[in-house]
Specification:
It contains 7 helices and 5 strands. The chain is α+β, with helices and mostly antiparallel strands and 186 residues long. Helix 2 crosses helix 7 and helix 3 runs parallel beside helix 4. The longest helix is centred in the middle third of the chain and has 28 residues.
């Protein structure tokens, strides 16, 4: 699994998608699937706003849920998470942003393969892909809002301005532009 985000571990107040691994009387163990299976824990007091709740009725092992990060212990490799502190509006905003991010991630992963003449996904060097994503999509996402990215990056007539911001990186922007335009055509 390659990291889907520039940060290899989540930060406090990030919204994340987690898979429920185990439910115990003390809380819930989860895996943060978009952070290379980083481990997380939801204390039973962070499951719901209600005082008494049956965790097994609210959560199902193997299901994905939205959570907010309360704290991260890098040494232990564990994130403390909350389900009760996140509302439906935040989830909807996150889902829209995440949908756009995953779309761009997949486009740039495909471009990476062509850029490096890789035929099969299992031939990808994950470290090289991560470096490429840092130099391209993660850089673009830091400098442009998603509306601007979606509207301009995927338009052959408008994507040059965004691509030009990558000049200081180790990317051949002419080659990237050709590959992106080819992706748009197909």
């Amino acid at each position: 699994m390659v990291y889907l985000h520039k940060n290899k571990i989540p930060k406090r107040d990030d919204i994340v998608i987690a898979k429920v691994d185990n439910i115990s009387p003390y809380g819930v163990n989860v895996t943060l699937i978009e952070y290379n299976n980083f481990q997380g824990f939801i204390n039973c007091s962070e499951i719901s706003r209600k005082k008494k709740v049956n965790m097994n009725k609210l959560l199902t092992i193997g299901k994905n849920i939205h959570l907010i990060v309360i704290a991260v212990d890098e040494e232990k490799g564990l994130a403390d998470l909350s389900k009760r502190s996140i509302n439906e509006e935040e989830i909807n905003i996150f889902n829209e942003k995440n949908k756009n991010h995953i779309k761009l991630y997949n486009i740039f992963k495909s471009i990476f393969m062509k850029y490096n003449d890789i035929k099969k996904p299992d031939e990808i060097n994950k470290d090289h892909l991560y470096e490429f994503l840092c130099d391209t999509i993660f850089h673009i996402e830091e400098n442009f809002d998603y509306d601007n990215i979606n509207e301009n990056l995927l338009s052959k007539n408008n994507n040059q301005e965004i691509i030009n911001t990558l000049k200081n990186n180790s990317i051949n922007i002419e080659k990237l532009k050709l590959l992106l335009d080819d992706y748009i055509d197909n």
